[in-house]
């Protein structure tokens, strides 16, 4: 199969969006904004069909990422995630992914409100890999 992003052969990840025929390499998909869910059926979605956050969160002027303290986008998007429990914790995808890898499943929680269950469910759904170690 040819990758829909780089056009090279060997693509094996298929989008699980309804009637979507996109197939891509995992690294190409990660660079393009595709989401792979690391739980249950291990589903993957292209940039058009990836899950989005439906959190009502109002940003106070220029909100910083709680991990790196640099500015985040003004609304939840692929690169900017919000805690679904408190809606006050904003962070970059790469920052919260690093936090998840170092904290692992038994210690990974919202850096602000410390919610674990709701936070982990949402992060899993949005493609954050949380190792069980």
Describe the protein's architecture and organization.
The chain folds into two domains: 1-50, Herpes Virus-1 (2-Layer Sandwich), CATH 3.30.40.10; 63-126. Helix content is 20%, strand content 11%. It contains three helices and six strands, in the order E-E-H-E-E-E-E-H-H. The protein has helices at 26-32, 93-103, 117-125, and strands at 13-14, 23-24, 35-36, 44-45, 80-82, 90-92. Strand 1 (13-14) and strand 2 form a beta hairpin. The radius of gyration is 15 Å and the shape is globular. The termini are far apart. The model has no long low-confidence stretch (mean pLDDT 93).
SS field, number of helical segments: 3
Biggest sheet strand line-up: 1-2
Please identify the structural class as seen in this structure. Answer: alpha+beta
Number of strands: 6
Broad shape: globular
User: What's the rounded overall pLDDT mean?
Assistant: 93
The biggest sheet, with number of strands, parallel, antiparallel or mixed sense and barrel status, is:
2 strands, antiparallel
Q: What is the string of helix and strand elements? A: EEHEEEEHH
Report the sheet-strand fraction.
5-15%
Roughly how much helix do the residues carry, as a percent range? 10-25%
> pLDDT under 50 segments (min length 5)?
none
Tell me the span between the first and last alpha carbons.
Answer: 34 Å
Radius of gyration: 15 Å
What is the count of structural domains? 2
